């Protein structure tokens, strides 16, 4: 299991890391939400174990940010003990919680149980065509051949929607309704955005790696998703 620990107390962080590694988990230690977000843009994880009391960005905001783009399993460590407070944590998107003070054995048992039933999660790095294209939704960043691509808001939204609905064809009206609901875009605008995206991704419309045109019908993302 790839485990990300987010805990600003170094002693607790180190203790959790030592025991997790003894249980054969691959562990990355971070000490703030900001550091964790940076790490999550570079590597995929199975579980995040995070404290709520963090410097600068608090744990609640961190959990909400992760949950908005991924279903990665999140366990929070909290001093909150009231049932309503615990329900609030789950409503934020946490999958489980551990109440302070806690035993390391309790944490390891929870991780062991998660390991047994861990389902496939939406990755925080979407890689296509053997790494030629990478989309990092947490930071809304796109890389082609390891070089960052500058997309506009609508270009990114359109690419992201097509990529996360791979091998499905969408007509212009559907894409406008989903990706341009806050604008007055009309159907032919989609063609212009697709053209811009292709140019920036170095995608040949006649032999597309990523976005295929179905003439008279719509567009389909055909990039091969990496394992």
Structural description of this entry:
The mean pLDDT is about 85. The protein is elongated, with a radius of gyration of 20 Å. The chain has 2 domains: about 120 residues, Response regulator (Rossmann fold); about 100 residues, Winged helix-like DNA-binding domain superfamily/Winged helix DNA-binding domain (Arc Repressor Mutant, subunit A, Orthogonal Bundle). The protein has about 230 residues and is α/β, with parallel strands linked by helices.
SS summary, helix count? 8
Order of helices and strands: EHEHEHEHEHEEEEHEHHEE
Read across the widest sheet, the strand sequence of neighbours is 2-1-3-4-5
Mean model confidence by pLDDT: 87
What distinguishing features does this structure have?
227 residues, alpha/beta, Rossmann fold, Arc Repressor Mutant, subunit A, 2 domains, five-stranded parallel β-sheet, four-stranded antiparallel β-sheet, 39% helix
């Amino acid at each position: 299991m790839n485990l990300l620990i987010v805990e600003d107390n170094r002693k607790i962080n180190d203790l959790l890391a030592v025991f997790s590694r003894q249980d054969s988990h691959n562990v990355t230690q971070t000490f703030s939400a900001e550091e964790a977000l940076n790490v999550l843009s570079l590597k995929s994880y199975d579980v995040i174990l995070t404290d709520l009391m963090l410097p600068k960005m608090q744990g609640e905001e961190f959990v909400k940010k992760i949950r908005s783009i991924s279903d990665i399993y999140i366990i929070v460590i909290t001093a909150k003990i009231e049932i309503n407070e615990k329900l609030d944590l789950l409503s934020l998107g946490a999958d489980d919680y551990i109440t302070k003070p806690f035993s390391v054995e309790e944490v390891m048992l929870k991780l062991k149980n998660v390991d047994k039933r861990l389902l496939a999660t939406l990755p925080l790095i979407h890689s296509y065509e053997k790494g030629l294209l990478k989309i990092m939704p947490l930071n809304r960043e796109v890389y082609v051949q390891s070089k960052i691509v500058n997309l506009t808001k609508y270009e990114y939204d359109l690419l992201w929607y097509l990529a996360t609905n791979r091998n499905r064809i969408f007509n212009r009206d559907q894409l406008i309704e989903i990706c341009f609901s806050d604008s007055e875009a009309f159907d032919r605008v989609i063609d212009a955005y697709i053209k811009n995206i292709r140019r920036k991704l170095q995608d040949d419309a006649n032999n597309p790696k990523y976005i295929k045109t179905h003439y008279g019908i719509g567009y389909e993302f055909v990039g091969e998703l990496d394992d």
